[in-house]
Structure formats: structure tokens, C-alpha cells
Amino acid sequence: MSISRREFMTMGAAASAGAAIAPGIRLIELAQAKSPEEAVTAAQRWGLLIDTNKCTKGCTSCVDACHTENGIDHTQLKGSDATKPHWIRKVEVKDPNTGYEHSLPVMCQHCQEPPCVDVCPTGASFKRADGIVLVDRHICIGCRYCMMACPYKARSFEHEDITNQKEHAPRGKGTVESCTMCVHKVDRGDGTTACAEACAKEGHKAILFGDLNDPKSEIAQTVRTKATRRIREDLNLDNSVRYIGI
Length: 246
Fold this sequence. Notes:
By secondary structure, the protein is of the alpha/beta class. The chain has a single domain, classed as 2-Layer Sandwich (Alpha-Beta Plaits), CATH 3.30.70. 21% of the residues lie in helices and 17% in strands. The protein has helices at 5-9, 27-31, 61-70, 115-119, 145-149, 183-188, 194-201, 218-225, and strands spanning 2-4, 46-51, 88-94, 101-107, 125-127, 133-135, 156-157, 176-177, 207-211, 241-244. Strands 1-3-4 form a three-stranded mixed β-sheet. It has a three-stranded mixed β-sheet with strand order 9-2-10. A hairpin with a 5-residue loop joins strand 5 and strand 6. Helix 3 packs across helix 7. It starts with a strand and ends with a strand.
């Protein structure tokens, strides 16, 4: 997709209503899967730092890796591309004043003050203590209020039956889904996400994952030494995803 820089920084979302309950393992169970001595706490705050100066136009390695990791197969889905789930998407942004263009991935921004959680009538949308925002598919009723509340168009509604699901990424028809910041990899101690890992393998290294609360982490040190921005900073949502160069 191609939009102006102004449009990008003021993105909004809209959706309609629907309902169903999905089968499978609940993400809230995954969120609580650690042993008591490893329980999720606010000591960590996981985040992503994306350097748009290193992100290559036309490269979709991060998107492809996300789809593979989470069992998203667009080739088996009907309908237009707009109705298919996108946990992460590439956006082309152009500054109308200078003509300078950026190519960057956009996913759930994992806000510390998430609007999706505020409007959810069932509590299906929730934020873990470590800042990762998730959806419990078992109590999601498909109302899509969260999609309307999200300023980043980061959530998708699943219109079709899902087969061959990944155990770590339960999905279901009639529910809302979005980037989980690879919560299963975080809890497993992998120290990276599928998108960051794929970007590094391509040699771009545009996506950096880490603990924003750890002053010794690479992401925290980079945030301290380089100018970074959040999308729609005016909303004061305190996103855990930051960008360089926008």
C-alpha cells in the first residue's frame, strides 16, 4: 500500500460486527504458561525498534516469516486481500515536502495504554504485565470494537474456518487476531521474533527486538542514543514499537 506521510501518522481504523467462538488453545493460557518462578512480571517490557533507513522497499521477509510462524496462508483464503488477516504489513510512506520515501512494517504497537483493551466488552483483549497485548480467542465474540478502536489498523477479523493451526498460535473463524510479538518465542527464551530474525537473515537488520526496561539491552541503548518516534505520539498510548527515520 502507498500513503502519504501525513496520512500514515494519522491512521484510523473501521470495522463492523460479527460473532462466534473459536476452538483451540487459549492465548491467555499461553500468557500464564510459565512456572511460578518464571511468571510474567513488569520487570521486562518487550518492544521492537524498526530502523526505516535499513528497511528495503519491496522486501517482504518480515511479513512472510510472520505468516509462516503463525500459520497464516493467504493462498487458501477466499475474498480480497483487504479481508485476509494481516498481523504485519509493509507500508510505503512518502513525505510530500521532500519526496523522501520510507518502507516500513506496521504491526500491533503493543501500547501500554491499549485502546483495544479499553473497549473490549468481554476482556478478550488484554495486556500482559510485560507489555505484550493479546487476544483470548475463547472469549472473543467477534464484535470488532477493538478493530475500530485501534489507530494503527493492526487487527484482523478471521472470516473463514482455519485448518492446520499452529499450537502456539490458536486462531478461529469469527474472532479478531493480531501480532503477538511472538509471545511463544518470548516465553521460550528465544530472544527474538520471527520478523526480526528474518530481517537479520536478509542482511537488513532493520528490526530490533528486546527488553526496553533493561538498560544493558541493545534496544534500550539504541533508544537512548538515537532519535526514535512512535506512530501517533499525540495519542499518548506509550507504544512498545518505535521507529527510526519517520
